[in-house]
Every structure is written in C-alpha cells, then in structure tokens.
Amino acid sequence: MDYLPLFFDLKAKPCLIVGGGTIATRKARLLHKAGAKLHVVAPKVSEELEKLVAASNGKVFKQEYDKTFLNDVILVISATDIDSVNSVVAADCHAIKLPVNVVDSPALCSVIMPAIIDRSPLIIGVTSGGEAPVLARRVRSMLESSIPAAYGQLAQLASKFRQRAKDVFENGDLRRRFWENILNGPIAEKVLGGNLAAAEQLIEAQLDSASVEKTGEVYLVGAGPGDPDLLTFKALRLMQQAEVVLYDRLVSEPILEMTRRDAERIYVGKKRAEHAVPQQKINQMLLELAQQGKRVLRLKGGDPFIFGRGGEEIDLLAEHKIPFQVVPGITAASGCASYSGIPLTHRDYSQSVRFITGHLQEGKENFRWSEFVDKQQTLVFYMGLAGLETICSKLIEYGKSPSTPAALIERGTLPEQRVHVSDLAGLAAKIEGLEVHAPTLLIIGDVVRCHEKLNWYK
Ligand code: SAH
C-alpha cells in the first residue's frame, strides 16, 4: 500500500492555495465544502475563488508566492500552471514538514487528493496514487451510481439513534441485528424514498418495544424491454437486495443475472392464453413470502403499471399492510420507439399517443375502433402479433387510410431486434413466412415515416 487513507478535519482551519485559476478554484470548492478557512496567494485570482475565500473567512493575497505564506497554515495546495513555482512550494513545505498537495504532480506531494463520493457523513475516497486517475474516476462513477444519493440521510439517521439503540440493546449481537434490519429493510427504503419522518417513527416503535423483528417487503420492479442498460438505478439496487425473485417470461437473461447471486429464483411467466402460474397464485405467493420476513422482488418486463397487472399484484399486499415499492421501468413502447428511430410524437405528424392492448378477446368487440382513426395520433399495440391482421383490417374498416405507415418491432432493444415496416394494408402480408419472434410491438401512424431516416445509425 503506497498511501494511508486518512480523513482530514479542516473545519475553520487555515489552508493555503497557491494559484488563482480554474484548478485552484476547483480545489478551493472542495476545501470550502470541508469547512476550511481558505487563504489564496496568486497575482490573478478568479472571481469565484475570491467569493469562496470571502465565504470561508480567509484572505486573498494578489501577489507572488513566498514562504512567509506558509506560516500558520495546516495544509497547502499548489495549483499554479508554472512548474517552477509548484516545485518551490513543495520544497518549502517539505522543509518544514507541512502537508502539501501539488495538483497533477504526485511526485511533489506529501498528501494526495482522492476522487470523492460525498454522502456526508458517509464519505468515500478513491485513489490510484496518481498512477491511473481516469480509472479512479471510473471507479468513483461506478460507486456514485450504486450508492443512492440519500445514503447520507441514512447515515445521519443511524447517528441520531445510535445512543438509544445502544441503551436498548445492550447485547452486541442483538444490536447488530437491529441495525442490519433497519439499514436493509423497509425503514431504509423509507429514507431513500424521501420519507424521513416515517422512518424515524418506525425506528422509535422498534426501540420502544425493544424487539428486533424482520419485516418483509415486496419490490414491484419494471425491468424495461430487454436491454439491461435500460434498468434504473433504483431497480438495480433493489434487485441486488431481494432474497427471492419472481420473474416473468419477458425478463431477459442478462437482467436476471443482475439479481443477487444467492437469491431464490421463481419463474411465474405467462404466455398468451396459457398461464404458467395463475395471477391469484402469484399475488398469494408475494404475500406469503413477505409475511415470512423476506424481501421479495417481483420483476416484470417493461413498466409494471402498463399492461403488467402491477395494480392487481399490490392490491392484496396493501390489504395486508405489507410494505411495497413500485419502481417504474421503461415500457416497450418507449424502448422500441427509441431503438428503431420512431418518435412516438412528432410536431409534424402526431400530437398524442395511445397504448392499446392487442390481446383481442375471441369474438368480443372490446374496442371502440372509431376512437383510433385520428391521423394525428400514434397507436401502439402491445400483445398484437396474433391479432395483427384483425387489428389492421378493423382500423381500415373504421376509416383509417390503408396507406397509414405501420411498423412491427420484434424483440425491441435486444441485440436480435428487427423492424418490419409497411402500411396497414400490407403489414400482415409482409411478415408472412418470416419467422417472427415474440415479443413484438406494433406502432401505427405517420411517425413511422421517420424510421428510414432516423435509424441510419444502426
Ligand atoms: N409491462 C410491459 C408490457 C407487458 S405486455 C411494458 O411496459 O412493456 C407484453 C407485451 O409487451 C408484449 O406482447 C409486447 O407487445 C410488448 N413488449 C414487451 N417487451 C418487448 C420488446 N422487447 N419488444 C417488443 N415488444 C415488447
């Protein structure tokens, strides 16, 4: 290990920055955040830097550096673009054993600055010791995206109840279990969802009853249309937290791979007209698993509230007061549209868009087809492959022009995506004989004209 990471308490302590340009300003912002009293010496000083110095109760000296500026400061940052000045500052500091950081010159430094993830009071520093700063920054962004922004609040909450928990749970094991439950379960989720007051109430209740109970929770998560990169941060976090996963046929393998390794996986997928596990049974399973204290992930394709029966699945949970969260996902319409160069609305072609189920019930006229004929409206049919021919001919029958452009997007956003473009009159014939794989999405309207031009990049 080339360096020992330490965290420096700079509150109200005098620090010196040599230099007055962009880099000096950037460093000053950091030091100011840590509460330092900033002094700056440089012939020219940026406006923002002057303000930061004033706000920190420090002083700006518009002149050349000399070593008298080192008196009474506890940390020095040299951020000039003149190498000779940086070297002199470093040498002067080393001579009196004053910690010094010279920007971009690890060899001249006695302390180096890490890339920082700030979730105060939780602070993470990442460094490569100056060997690979781009890599260190990359690690930082990985951590940034996997540690929710509200983790700071979680840490504050833990700090607020630390002493009480110590008093209530004298036994160290019990206390640890208490905190594990708090930081991993519904209470933490309340904090991350922005409801600090509710989280505090729940902690109070547990401390009052001096009991450590494991409460289950259900996460109803939209996994998007297939490409794992379209998951949300929140989806990923909950996926890695749940102990049991109930997933659908539409959830792609690479996405499933991103759930917790040791999680139990239960397939409850449905195919058209063939229910692997009846909906009622799924609802019941979610309830029972959560009642056993498990964190249950219900992973669904696209968005759970768009043709996803999400509402039905949480109904029973709400009745039984089981905590749950619903995480939106990118719905197939958005995913397929973006990945095929078909904007769902466009000022020239369409002012509204309608998501419609194409799951036509045998023999039943369950649509008001006449509502679909408006030329300025994009129609998106989910589950429309089996009924494709009927959908197209009904639309024509009710007055839509047979030449209205129509696209069938097959396995949208996945590497195997294919887009079949035609018009209402010709689409069914166009795909005849082709082996079209589910899932497919049907987009109808003048916006489909954009496909040819906007899809060039693929
Ligand atoms: N909740 C999902 C939709 C579930 S209904 C969502 O918001 O996307 C299932 C239908 O969604 C499929 O029949 C198909 O029409 C559509 N679909 C889902 N994923 C798709 C994909 N990757 N490509 C094309 N269509 C998709």
UniProtKB/TrEMBL annotation:
Residues binding NAD(+): T22, I23, P43, K44
Modification sites for Phosphoserine: S128
Its EC number(s): 2.1.1.107, 1.3.1.76, 4.99.1.4
Sirohaem synthase dimerisation domain span: 150-207
Region annotation Uroporphyrinogen-III C-methyltransferase: where it falls in the sequence: 216-458
BP-aspect Gene Ontology terms: cobalamin biosynthetic process; methylation; siroheme biosynthetic process
Residue span, Tetrapyrrole methylase domain: 218-427
Family that this chain belongs to: Belongs to the precorrin methyltransferase family. In the N-terminal section; belongs to the precorrin-2 dehydrogenase / sirohydrochlorin ferrochelatase family.
InterPro entries according to UniProt: 4pyrrol_Mease (IPR000878), 4pyrrol_Methylase_sf (IPR035996), 4pyrrole_Mease_sub1 (IPR014777), 4pyrrole_Mease_sub2 (IPR014776), CobA/CysG_C (IPR006366), NAD(P)-bd_dom_sf (IPR036291), Siro_Cobalamin_biosynth (IPR050161), Sirohaem_synt_dimer_dom_sf (IPR037115)
Keywords annotated in UniProt: Cobalamin biosynthesis, Lyase, Methyltransferase, Multifunctional enzyme, NAD, Oxidoreductase, Phosphoprotein, Porphyrin biosynthesis, S-adenosyl-L-methionine, Transferase
GO molecular function: NAD binding; precorrin-2 dehydrogenase activity; sirohydrochlorin ferrochelatase activity; uroporphyrin-III C-methyltransferase activity
Region span, Precorrin-2 dehydrogenase / sirohydrochlorin ferrochelatase: 1-203
Function summary: Then it catalyzes the NAD-dependent ring dehydrogenation of precorrin-2 to yield sirohydrochlorin. Finally, it catalyzes the ferrochelation of sirohydrochlorin to yield siroheme.
Residues forming the catalytic site: D248 (proton acceptor), K270 (proton donor)
Catalytic activity as recorded in UniProt: siroheme + 2 H(+) = sirohydrochlorin + Fe(2+); precorrin-2 + NAD(+) = sirohydrochlorin + NADH + 2 H(+); uroporphyrinogen III + 2 S-adenosyl-L-methionine = precorrin-2 + 2 S-adenosyl-L-homocysteine + H(+)
PANTHER family the UniProt entry points to: SIROHEME SYNTHASE, SIROHEME SYNTHASE-RELATED
Listed pathway(s): Cofactor biosynthesis; adenosylcobalamin biosynthesis; precorrin-2 from uroporphyrinogen III: step 1/1; Cofactor biosynthesis; adenosylcobalamin biosynthesis; sirohydrochlorin from precorrin-2: step 1/1; Porphyrin-containing compound metabolism; siroheme biosynthesis; sirohydrochlorin from precorrin-2: step 1/1; Porphyrin-containing compound metabolism; siroheme biosynthesis; precorrin-2 from uroporphyrinogen III: step 1/1
Database matches in NCBIfam families: cobA_cysG_Cterm, cysG_Nterm, PRK06136.1, PRK10637.1
Residues that coordinate or bind S-adenosyl-L-methionine: P225, G301, G302, D303, I306, T331, A332, M383, G412
Name of the protein this chain belongs to: Siroheme synthase
Annotated SUPFAM superfamilies: NAD(P)-binding Rossmann-fold domains (SSF51735), Siroheme synthase middle domains-like (SSF75615), Tetrapyrrole methylase (SSF53790)
